[in-house]
Specification:
Chain lengths: 380, 233
């Protein structure tokens, strides 16, 4: 269990956060928020690189910091692994020396060099210097170095943020492998909702130094009241799904979701494989009768659960034209429609509606690991 | 080879090198500690400490020599105590020349090292700490290797300054052949002596040669260090 209650004042900003999370043995907890909201400061307090003005930090009952009791364990005794955004490899050492820098800080070593270099595919880089590595390679070595120091928990501070799109795609699968194969709880800091949805099971939403919400990734991303924080442009919902069938003739894969079948462009996954998908709010349309003669492949029925507030504070007329609706299709689904449509359809909480989802609107990129049956059950 | 220079000139060269090496070695640890203090810590009176260290750079060297004489001379504040307790006297000896040279070289060495320390990415030290390295290990395995080019530059500057030291030396330890007469002092003496022009020219040539050799050697070492820490540089 990770416990953090901390206050810290900066000249122009303050952190006052309380986080108590119980990550699964091999789960990722995402700390999500905009740049400058205090995410990095919070993990720096866990690592011991930043000292809170007051508060308490404990991992699995081991107190690392407690201002009341005068406890402040130095970072080198905390057994907290930290992967920095900028890799921070030691430039004067070879890759191998970097990897082994923290090895053997505990008597029992859970991972050995060969295992980690295989996992991260960096075996061929061992004799090189960090200056000769690409950004993606540096970050993989940095991850390996941290794991080989035998931490009890892994903190990752936007490990993909300084990489371009292709490099991100290169690293993501490795982070998924860490999550699935190492049995190490991971706290993953990110300002990208796509990364969070793809990797994490649980998320903590940080806003202006405070915890705005925390809980299951699917629940948080579908809450309309959090929408200014999770992002207007990226607004969407996460659905747990399993592969049901392949439609080879049309090159489609049928997925079983809490709301019914959804067809997506063919995925090379075996039936029964669980996965998550993200549907952007702007890629869903609503109808009050089941439409016929339409090209929409995915039509799911549901009831209107919540209608988003009109944003009066904005003078932006274009923004004011849109409204978000949360539809319960067996799981919450966020939909973005015009306010005019809302009025013309006469939608109210409890209205019966059909959600029209474009097959192509399901981004293959966000098909992550399955959320697990317990998450799916919670929606019903 | 030995005919090139007179025995007195060989003596001046050997003495100069000894004074420069000893003053450089003595100056380095002090300069490193002061550079760390100035680069990493904030404390009351920091500006004063910074100013005092830089004083030899801005006051006439004769003033430094005079102050050393007042402080470290046989009857000086510290010098008298050193003599009474340990029986040590450094005024008018080659050791005194080394002390004078070290004091004059200190600001140059501190500046070079402070720049190097300030340019070290503290993030690397943080990374080392989260990997379980205690402060001493962080210093030895991360900070020191990264500032080593700066230390080398500081050492070269200290060595060169010590070789060239004149004003503070002649004031503090006088111009005693075989004891405190380094090359610049010998050169000065030759210029004052009728018929000493040839000897003065040779001494000047020696000065230039020693300085060039030191500079080339340090550039070679700096390149090797940079290659070992910089990767592709």
């Amino acid at each position: 269990m990770i416990e953090l209650r901390a206050r810290k004042h900066f000249p122009s900003f303050a952190i006052d956060a309380e986080i108590v999370i119980e990550p699964e043995e091999s789960g990722i907890v995402a700390l999500f928020g905009k740049s400058g909201c205090g995410k990095t400061s919070i993990i720096n307090m866990i690592a011991g690189l930043l000292r809170p003005d007051a508060g308490k930090v404990a991992i699995d009952g081991r107190v690392l910091f407690d201002s009341a009791a005068g406890v402040d364990i130095p970072p080198y005794r905390r057994d907290v692994g930290y992967v920095f955004q900028d890799a921070r490899l030691f430039p004067h050492m070879t890759v191998k020396s970097n990897l082994l820098y923290g090895a053997g800080r505990q008597s029992e070593t859970r991972f050995d060099l060969g295992q980690i270099t295989d996992l991260l595919d960096i075996g061929h880089l061992l004799t090189r210097r960090p200056g000769e590595l690409s950004g993606g390679e540096k970050q993989r070595v940095s991850i390996g170095r941290t794991i080989l120091s035998n931490p009890r928990i892994l903190l990752m501070d936007e490990p993909l943020a300084s990489l371009d799109g292709a490099r991100k795609a290169e690293i993501l699968p490795f982070i998924q492998r860490l999550r699935d194969e190492l049995g190490l709880p991971i706290i993953y800091v990110s300002h990208s909702i796509e990364e969070v949805v793809r990797l994490a099971d649980v998320m903590v939403l940080i806003d202006d130094g405070r915890v705005a919400a925390s809980g299951d990734v699917g629940d948080i991303t579908s809450r309309l009241d959090l929408y200014p924080l999770t992002g207007r442009y990226e607004a969407g919902s996460v659905l747990a799904a399993t592969v049901k069938d392949q439609d080879a003739d049309y090159g489609l894969t049928v997925l079983d979701t809490p709301g019914g079948d959804i067809r997506v462009p063919q995925l090379s996954l075996p039936p029964g494989q669980s996965l998550r998908l993200r549907i952007r709010a702007r890629d869903v349309a609503l109808a009050i009768e089941r439409p016929t003669g339409t090209s929409f492949q995915n039509i799911l029925s549901g009831t209107v659960r919540e209608i988003g507030e009109r944003i009066h504070t904005r003078s932006d007329a274009a923004a004011d034209a849109m409204v978000e609706v949360s539809v319960d299709i067996g799981a919450p689904l966020r939909v973005r429609i015009t306010r005019k449509s809302l009025d013309e359809l006469g939608l109210r909480t409890g209205s019966l509606v059909y959600a029209l989802i474009k097959a192509v609107a399901i981004d293959k990129h966000t098909l992550g690991r399955g959320a697990g049956s317990e998450h799916a059950a919670r929606y019903s | 080879m030995t005919d090139l220079l007179s025995p007195a000139e060989w003596e001046a060269l050997a003495l100069s090198l000894r004074v420069a090496v000893v003053s450089m070695l003595g100056c380095l640890p002090v300069a490193l500690a002061l550079a760390f203090l100035l680069a990493r810590f904030r404390f009351p009176g920091k500006a004063l400490v910074d100013g005092l260290i830089h004083l030899p750079l801005v006051v006439p060297p004769v003033v430094v020599g005079y102050l050393l004489l007042v402080l470290l001379g046989r009857k000086g504040v510290v010098g008298a105590w050193l003599y009474d307790v340990f029986g040590i006297s450094i005024a008018f000896t080659w050791k005194g020349a080394a002390v004078a040279a070290a004091v004059m070289a200190l600001p140059l060495a501190v500046r070079a090292m402070r720049l190097a320390i300030e340019s070290v990415d503290r993030g690397l030290e943080d990374a080392a700490k989260t990997l379980g390295a205690q402060p001493l290990k962080v210093f030895a395995t991360v900070t020191m290797p990264l500032i080593s080019p700066g230390i080398l530059v500081g050492a070269l500057l200290a060595f060169a300054r010590a070789l060239g030291e004149f004003g503070a030396t002649i004031t503090f330890v006088s111009n005693i052949p075989g004891e405190t007469q380094t090359i610049p002092l010998a050169l000065y003496a030759q210029i004052q002596t009728p018929g000493g022009e040839a000897a003065a020219a040779r001494l000047a040539a020696i000065s230039i040669a020693v300085a060039l050799i030191a500079m080339i050697a340090s550039e070679y070492m700096a390149r090797r260090i940079r290659r070992s820490i910089g990767g592709t540089e």
